[in-house]
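Entry:
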Amino acid sequence: MQNNYIKIPYYGISSIGISILFSIIILIYLGAAVSSERKNNRENIETIGNSTEDIWWENGFLFMCPLH
């Protein structure tokens, strides 16, 4: 007798999910690091006399990352 059922590849699907999750976490962390550095450099330039505004994606990354 044959087993004619379809096996669901839990290991493969979970590996892909975990990979995507870690990629998003690293993207947010590195984006917040770049945003923080750009914001600090901009603040140093503003002391010289130039006024600049924050960019929307910088504020978004800094809001989403709890470490920055």
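The helical segments are 10-48, 56-64.
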